[in-house]
Amino acid sequence: MRHRKEHTKSEQPQPNIGVDLIRIHRAVTRGLAVSLETCTAFAKGGFPDTVSAEGFWWYCNGLEAVALAHHVSEDELFFPCLRERLPDQDFDGLSADHEVMHVILGEMQAAREASSLTAMSAALAIPFLFYNLEDDDRTHFMSVMPPQVTQELVPFVWKDIWAPMKPFLLD
Ligand SMILES: [Fe+2]
User: Fold this and answer.
1) What is the distance in A from the centroid of ligand 1 to the CA of 102?
2) CA–CA dist 6, 99 (Å, integer)
3) Protein residues within 5 Å, CB atom, of ion ligand 1
4) How far apart are the CA of 155 and the centre of ligand 1, in A?
5) pLDDT tens across 124-139, in order?
6) Which single residue of 42, 54, 68, 164 has CA 20 to 30 Å from 118?
7) Domain assignment present for 8
8) Using one digit for the tens of pLDDT, what is the confidence trace for 76-104?
9) 9 CA distance to ligand 1 centroid (A)?
């Protein structure tokens, strides 16, 4: 009779907040690159159709939600802790970069509030993170989420909200 191997505490993957932060940065970096590239193309040639315009709108909203939440977590939580351990690093410079981005994100927020298009930010932000990450990064990120999010909310309950972003997401 085979016995299923039980994981001991030391064999379980240990949380690594540094790697998790790098992972989030990958999603935000891709989001910024796709947004910039798409803005440039749409500015030159106009929106190809209303579906693309709407999808891009939601993609930018997903980016806004993720970037703002990420910056707040860094400014208020991570940077104060890291300052003690890495006193020579320029965290003030990073926070100043955030402030510059927040002006743009604030303009996006104002545009959203002035429009008739609104959506629950989690229903955009979580799929935005999942599908701006590749392979192992996505697998890991999904594995630390509650199954209700990965198996119910994203694929079914929230699907109609985030589906218009699909042309800008990874498969
Ligand atoms: Fe960051």
Assistant:
1) 13
2) 48
3) 74
4) 27
5) 999 999 999 999 999 9
6) 42
7) no
8) 999 999 999 999 999 999 999 999 999 99
9) 30
Q: State the DSSP H helix or E strand holding residue 126, giving kind and residue range, or none if neither.
A: helix 121-130
Q: Is residue 6 part of a domain?
A: no
CA–centroid distance, 51 to ligand 1, in Å, is 31
* Alpha-carbon 37 to chain mean position: 18
Q: pTM for the whole thing?
A: 0.85
Q: From CA 26, how far away is CA 38, in angstroms rounded? A: 18
Cα atoms found within 13 Å of the Cα of residue 83, Cβ hemisphere only: 13
Residue 7 lies in a domain: no
Distance from the CA of 93 to the center of ligand 1, in angstroms?
12
Ligand 1 center–CA 29 separation, angstroms: 10
Ligand 1 geometric centre to CA of 1 (Å): 50
- Spatial neighbors of 34 by CB under 8 A, at least 6 apart, are 59, 132, 168
Q: Which of 72, 75, 70, 65 minimizes the C-alpha distance to 108?
A: 65
Q: Which residues of 38-67 are buried (b: 16+ CB within 10 A; e: fewer)?
A: beeeeeeeeeeeeebeebbbbbbbbbbbbb
Range of the domain at 36: 17-168
155: Cα within 13 Å, side-chain hemisphere: 6
Q: Is residue 10 part of a domain?
A: no
